[in-house]
Amino acid sequence: MAEITSTIAGGGTRQIHIRRARLTAMNGGDQGKTWQVDRDLIRIGARADNDVVLTDATVSRQHAEIVRSAQGTILRDLGSTNGTFAGPVRVREVYLAPDTRFRVGNTELAFTTNDEVIDIAPSMFDQFEGMVGRSIAMREVFGVLERVAPTELTVMVTGETGTGKELVSRALHARSPRSKGPFIVFDCGAAPESLVESELFGHERGAFTGAVAGREGLFEAAHGGTIFIDEIGELPIELQPRLLRVLEQREVRRVGATRAKPVDVRVVAAPNRDLRQEVAAGRFREDLYYRLAVVEVRLPALRERREDLPILVDHLLRRSTGNRTVRGIDPEVRALFDAYHWPGTVRELNNVVERAVPFCDGPLVNMAALPAALRAAGAVLPQATAAAGVRVEANSDVPFKDAKELLIEAFERAYLVELIDKHDQNVSKAARAADMDRKSITRLLKKHGIKYRDV
Fold first, then answer.
1. Per residue in 95-124, pLDDT tens?
2. DSSP code, position 426
3. pTM: predicted TM-score of the whole model, two decimal places
4. Cα 271–313–306 angle (5° rounding)?
5. What is the DSSP string of 110-171?
6. Are the CB atoms for 86 and 94 separated by under 8 Å?
7. Parallel, antiparallel or unpaired: strands 364-365 and 328-329
8. How many Å separate Cα 44 from the centre of its chain?
9. Which of 267, 273, 324, 432 could link 233 by a cystine bridge, Cβ 3.0 to 4.6 Å?
């Protein structure tokens, strides 16, 4: 049972608020036993797949459940034989106070909230599983992942295409207690709409034309592990209640089945569009959005973390298939990489490095090994290094729109580097000298990865 909210404390410290619960058996054969739970749904009963398993013979197989909702914490009886009691009163459903006791069968349980507020500082490390980065932006991401990975919390990973959202999901799985379980990837945008339901939830024999045999869905296949749902915004609106039920009830019902099956799966999702806008437009359920975005991790684009380019290039060269000789990039290529906009972010950089390695004749990637489009961009970018006095030379090898964007990007970077250096990295002085709003110049400095003093 948990919820994380990111906040900025008075001194600028980022925090996460983890809401957990503790249940303790106060009598009977399980007396003294304690269960720590950080899920939104806690199942109590005699069956082995419950979160709280009791040996009391008066406790039903599935006796009761505790549900965290926006309105509070609810204790609900699940049709037990011997009842659920709050004090002397047998209840079907009741709200629980933070520290209270209740009884299932003959066993009294103490329910206690066990909240934790944790300051999130940038990680001390420059890598997390398969990801690398020395920038503050990436080490802040690593700091959150280090705290969240060992929990059961559902995570929403946001960021531009190519920033590494699937890498984050794999890293979360690898650092979790589920690491030995399956890791399943499902791309909502790639699957035909008519097959999404069957792919995710499975189907029984004869459920539809062509269903000649029963088939488990991906949630069943991911039991005990993690499922990564990419492009979650493409999930049809009519299937969203079914996904919500899996998240809330931890059970899945195949197409054509009459009974649901329990599943133990951690969900990591990534949207391909702004889900808040989709909720406002009525195309995505608000309750599902909040169930998915218990923790939201935003990945910065490569242009927001340019200081990571050297370590990223080294990392990509080391893991490049078949690369035994290339160890770095020459100064001309490094200058081009620093100035380039990288619209495809890290994925584009990876593709460029992978493509360049077979065309290298020595230990360094040179301009001749780069794709033609990037070499053409390199011919345009140097023309924009004279700041306000930019001298433009046409290059017909680059499409007009791309050439214009490259020139603007290079001009912005060159102008800002000269401006901030002239004013000793003091952003306030630089903003006044440039006749710019302080917030605007700060945004541009961050965009181009230029260091400054925030005074």
1. 998 889 999 999 999 999 877 777 778 899
2. B
3. 0.73
4. 65
5. EEEE--EEEEEPPPSSSEETTEE--SHHHHHHHHHHHHHTTS---EEEE-STTS-HHHHHHH
6. yes
7. parallel
8. 30
9. 273
